[in-house]
């Protein structure tokens, strides 16, 4: 088992939403996770990885 926090994000997608809506959503989520990672079970020194499906 790898100690990590996994966050599944619903973000705005094209063609309904124009660029850069999805990028703005991703930035917001990363900022939120960084600000709240201790309450999510992560250490204050934890790094945040981002992946796209």
Automatic annotation (TrEMBL):
One of its GO terms (molecular function) is hydrolase activity. Residues 2-50 form the Alpha/beta hydrolase fold-3 domain. This is Alpha/beta hydrolase fold-3 domain-containing protein. It comes from the Eukaryota.
